[in-house]
């Protein structure tokens, strides 16, 4: 979708790319440009050159160049060899495109995270993109090129979003800050009234069906364990007899695993959404379920399995990249289990020793 948007202003992007390249070519040109910046008393100081295989760096280049749009024509008056200055109409188009790309950039960064659960975050980000595209597509006051660009992006979005992703919706519901409220809020804005009602029911039915499978597994394991009563051997006679303690433990287990009148899932959904008191600290849904495991013994296991699924299998810098994936022959020959072991082992070691993963510079 991003490539569809950028293709509509490819000639403008080329002019801005060449402008940044021209100005950064030597110290004299850069000094002349900086003098104009100081005369206009602009607080900004740096132009960003894109890496053409990373669309987010193109967005960064455009959004930073906009800040100097008054400087470029003045620089052209000083430098006759500078011939690729964007026009005022070009800057208007760039500003509109950047408004759209900003949402995609933010969403991609969030769902490509590797240090926190992402499956519970995806629905809200997709919803935000959908609402933006629908709003721009239905706005008759927008410029024709925006209608053309958004129309192409919307067609691609609807192609992949046509069918509701059950896993994405269930993961969002298992975020205690959202619960059923998230789909009751998002779906009516993403689908027609009838479609939204059907999809909400479909998600809820799937959620309860999945929970019932976890309940069945739980009671199956419990019944198997109850048959294995802890025996105590009388040393004198050699006869195995059940101890009073083991019988009491089995009674406690059977009492606690008897099916409640209302399921954990129903209790969870009926309770209010979790409100984060400290908004400055990132919320970790998996950690919340870990601390709530005693209250939701079955549902916490289900949440753990679903929230552990990453939405993206690649890091954000690879998601932004439009280039090909480069894997050497040695890595390509590794067994899948070996690769998983190496990745998990690295994460565990970093967690054990408190080492943070270094963020690579993704702006080229």
Description:
Strands 1-2 form a two-stranded antiparallel sheet. It has helices at 2-7, 10-23, 27-39, 55-66, 71-78, 88-111, 122-138, 144-161, 166-173, 181-190, 193-226, 244-257, 264-270, 285-291, 299-307, 316-320, 329-332, 336-353, and strands spanning 231-233, 240-242. 63% of the residues lie in helices and 2% in strands. With 364 residues, the chain is mainly α.
Radius of gyration: 29 Å
- Helix-and-strand structural type: mainly alpha
Order of helices and strands: HHHHHHHHHHHEEHHHHHHH
Strand content: under 5%
Overall form: elongated
Enumerate how many helices there are, as a single number.
18
Mean pLDDT: 80
Question: Ranges with pLDDT <50 over ≥5 residues?
Answer: 229-235, 359-364
End-to-end CA span: 21 Å
- Fraction of residues in H or I helices: 55-70%
Tally of DSSP β-strands = 2
Largest sheet: 2 strands, antiparallel
| Strand ordering within the main sheet | 1-2
């Amino acid at each position: 979708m991003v490539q569809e948007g950028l293709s509509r202003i490819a000639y403008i992007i080329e002019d801005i790319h060449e402008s940044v390249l021209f100005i950064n070519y030597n110290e004299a040109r850069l000094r002349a440009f900086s003098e104009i910046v100081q005369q206009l008393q602009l607080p900004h100081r740096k132009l960003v050159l894109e890496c053409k295989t990373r669309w987010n760096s193109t967005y960064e280049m455009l959004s930073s160049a906009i800040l100097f749009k008054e400087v470029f024509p003045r620089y052209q008056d000083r430098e006759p060899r500078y011939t690729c200055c964007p026009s005022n109409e070009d800057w208007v188009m760039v500003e509109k495109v950047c408004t759209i790309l900003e949402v995609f950039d933010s969403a991609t960064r969030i769902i490509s995270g590797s240090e926190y659960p992402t499956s519970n975050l995806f629905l809200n980000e997709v919803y935000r993109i959908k609402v933006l595209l629908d709003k721009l597509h239905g706005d008759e006051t927008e410029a024709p090129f925006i209608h053309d660009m958004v129309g192409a992006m919307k067609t691609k979005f609807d192609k992949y979003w046509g069918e509701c992703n059950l896993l994405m919706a269930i993961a969002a519901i298992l975020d205690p800050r959202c619960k059923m409220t998230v789909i009751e809020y998002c779906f009516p804005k993403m689908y027609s009234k009838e479609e939204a009602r059907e999809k909400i029911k479909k998600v809820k039915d799937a959620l309860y069906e999945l929970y019932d499978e976890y309940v069945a597994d739980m009671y199956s394991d419990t019944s198997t364990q109850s048959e294995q009563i802890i025996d105590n051997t009388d040393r004198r006679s050699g006869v195995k007899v059940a101890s009073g303690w083991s019988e009491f433990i089995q009674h406690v287990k059977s009492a606690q695993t008897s099916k409640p009148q209302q399921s954990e899932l129903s209790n969870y959904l009926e309770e209010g959404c979790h409100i984060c008191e400290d908004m400055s600290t990132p919320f970790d849904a998996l950690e919340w379920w870990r601390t709530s495991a005693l209250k939701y013994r079955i549902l916490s296991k289900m949440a753990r399995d679903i929230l552990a699924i990453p939405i993206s299998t690649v890091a954000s810098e690879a998601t932004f990249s439009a280039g090909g994936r480069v894997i050497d022959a040695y890595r390509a020959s590794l067994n899948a289990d070996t690769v998983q072991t190496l990745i998990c082992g690295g994460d565990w070691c970093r967690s054990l020793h408190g080492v943070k993963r270094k963020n690579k510079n993704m702006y080229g």
